Amino acid sequence: MAAANLQTMQNASLVDADAQAEALYASRMMGITITLAIGGVMTYFGTRQPRDDAPMRIKDMPEGYKPRDELEQKAVDSYERKQELPLIPWLMANIRWVMATYITGVHVLAVVGLPYLLDCKVETLLALPVFYIFSGFGITGGAHRLWSHKAYKGYTPYRFFVMLCNSMANQGTIYHWSRDHRTHHKYSETKADPHNALRGFFYAHVGWLLFKKDPRVKFAGAHINMSDLAALPEIKLQRRFDPWWNLFWCFGFPTLVASIGWGESPTKAYFILGVLRYVLVLNATWLVNSAAHIWGGHPYEDSHPAENPSVAILSMGEGWHNWHHAFPHDYAASELGVSAQFNPTKLFIDFCAKIGLVYERRRATEMWSTRRKNKGYKNVDLVGPPFLRQRVVS
């Protein structure tokens, strides 16, 4: 009898424990559901349109209102363009999970590998900026100025060398990088711009890679003429072995160089010269799409791309972005020489021209001089220290 009572009490305790567990689980799920619902509502109303307190309450201006000055006109234009942007679909279904996992993963690995900087060979530390420069040049002097804009020409050995540098940067194939960049210039800061800065810093920096493309971006990119690049042997080679080709040159090649060259630990070489260097070059490139489209002066044209010396330093001369969007065919991507405006990419291209690897470098300085003579064109002054001089509207 006593045993039966004990068994009954144990069963009752188990039932109570199960009931408590179910109640706890239900309360937690309710909390998660409420949190997600609140977050969803805030995201919806937070990104659907510009805030109500937009500058000068432009949304309240009467129909037919004429802006009083240039500053107000810019604000009106910017507001109207933002109004046309659709809601950014910050939904799970629109996330490119493979890309999001990859980009998050390499950034986590870069942080994990930072302690190796304190315990590696001196040669590895010296090699870090070298690999940064060459892989960065594969983007700035290669995918950007050579192939996207055809701002200068290079002989076959030079083009294959720059293709290898570009592969070390591992930002997709030259073909696809150039297609997106040509689309960006043709439809800058519109719905068809792959990394439209009007959507905000995060979207222009990396968000455009994490989410599925807007249909208008896909349509615009599909109608960009890429026949000139598709026929080039170096681009055919890179595309044929994509993505393994780029992955080897980005991570495997630097690891082998350090391991065989000066006996560095393969692990340290991989984390420092592979992952860390890769992430640094990635973000320097992305800053041109984000920071250089948001902060800086506009002496050459009243478009969103700006002159940003800080970005120029990090991206090897790509931060003189207002000039670049005004004259995209200019191989220098800046108005002034390298002693006035920091531009290692131009310096290396000029060196290669002297030794006969590069030819037909196109410049836009004469076009700029002619434009400045037009009546009513803005007056600009040259200010700043050496290497960081820039035009400002006077």
Structure, briefly:
The protein has 394 residues and is mainly alpha-helical. It has 16 helices and 4 strands.
Tag the structure with descriptive keywords.
394 residues; mainly alpha; two-stranded antiparallel ribbon
SSE pattern, N- to C-terminal:
HHHHEHHHHHHHHHHHEHEE
Q: Mean pLDDT, rounded to whole units?
A: 84
Largest sheet: 2 strands, antiparallel
Uncertain segments are 1-15, 21-63
Number of helices: 16
Q: How are strands sequenced across the largest beta sheet?
A: 1-2
> Into how many domains do the coordinates divide?
1
Cofactor: Fe(2+)
Transmembrane segments: 29-47, 97-118, 124-143
Protein name: Delta9 desaturase
GO molecular function, one term: iron ion binding
Can you tell me about this structure?
It is a single chain. The chain has 394 residues and is mainly alpha-helical. It has one domain. The protein is built from 16 helices and four strands. The chain has helices at 2-47, 70-84, 97-112, 122-148, 156-169, 174-186, 201-210, 215-222, 227-230, 233-240, 244-262, 266-289, 309-314, 321-326, 344-354, 365-372, and strands at 153-154, 358-359, 380-383, 390-393. It has a two-stranded antiparallel ribbon. Strands 3-4 form a two-stranded antiparallel sheet. A hairpin with a 6-residue loop joins strand 3 and strand 4. Helix 4 (122-148) runs antiparallel to helix 11. The longest helix has 46 residues, at 2-47. It is globular, with a radius of gyration of 27 Å. The protein starts with a helix and ends with a strand. Residues 1-15 and 21-63 have low confidence and may be disordered.
